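Cross-posting from the modeling subforum.

Setting up a comparison between two proteins and wanted a second pair of eyes on the formatting. Protein 1 (sequence, then structure tokens):
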Amino acid sequence: MTDFQQDHPDGVILTMDQMSLYLQATTARVWYPKGQRPTVLVSPQRDCLHWYGALALHSGQEVALNLPTMDSEATIHFLKHLLIVFPVQALLLFLDRAPWHRGEAIRAFLAENPRLQLIYFPPACPQLNPQEHVWKAARLAIGHNHSRLTLGTLRQDCAHFLDQTLFHFHWVEKFAPLNIGAV
């Protein structure tokens, strides 16, 4: 086991996850003038967008892509994107154990890209993944009580939110400086 930060002082530690954002708005609490009722337009369609995202723990930078599916091929596409966004840095990526995050195609990709290391969270522990909090913030800002009529508008608004927001969570500072080893 090696100390990632010691071995790679310029390395980047990220956490990764996916979310589906639906055109059909979800309702949540909302402030409105007394005596008036809020109106939320609801689409009968269950069309959705799939997002892959990775949060750089030290900077709060979010890297996100809208991809058509959540499978091994899309995962590899996103991993390639991370290698482009961080062109020279070693990457340590924490992620869950979704079936599309493992398997022969992923192992082959990692063998070809040694500056990328994966560490899997324990099973059934989404609360350990800071990326989940990014998705929660995105759903609050974009997914609840909205009246977007097209997936294109929803995609654009979500991309803008993710691109323009730095995500700093008070407990990330406690997590990020740990001596995290790769196996």
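Protein 2 (same layout):
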Amino acid sequence: MLVQLPNPDILSTPYHYSARWHAPSKSRRIAEFTAGRFCALQALNALRPGESHDIAAFPDGSPRWPAGIVGSITHTESFVSAAIAESSRFAAIGIDSEKLPSPDTLDTVEDLVILDEEQRLLAELPLSPIQGRILVFSAKESVYKCLQPLIQRPFDFSAVCLDAIHVSIGAFTFHLTEFLHPKFPAAFRAQGRFAFSHDCVHTGVELEKKALFRSGEKPKESKSL
């Protein structure tokens, strides 16, 4: 059962649909797939009303969006969301939502994801250890989901380093630590947004075609990045 929820304030695109859902113990993967596609179809219906929509899948299960569309889907055990936009404006979108976990899970996240520079950054922020560590994990998930379709190959989370987290405006900046693609060399910089709601950490990254984030610029206090 899906119940529509307000979208977390992490994107500028208005074509975003979120819902609370219950993940059954049996056939969980099928249920996650179905819930994510449902949200994606709601977003597509809002962007292109009156059209018939079909979202195919790549071999890895990721969505094959209709021509002229970019988007992203995320789900946790109680929250599912999909966001899309016209590809004429955005090169790619990545969103992620993570349920705030137990301390045991945090140790694994920290070992696999968080760099030394990010440890020092988190120590200066007014966030709990749970919030800070899962925020870094979720931000890197959003970056990955945004860049991977453009790069068309997997890459490790160590290739992404968060260098600023602005809690007051729900924004973060990141840079790449290694070369991933001619368009995404080492030291490429961009920004994303985050929010805490529905017992989750939510993050989003949008890459605009006309104006990617310029290196060294601090994000402005704005609802839209």
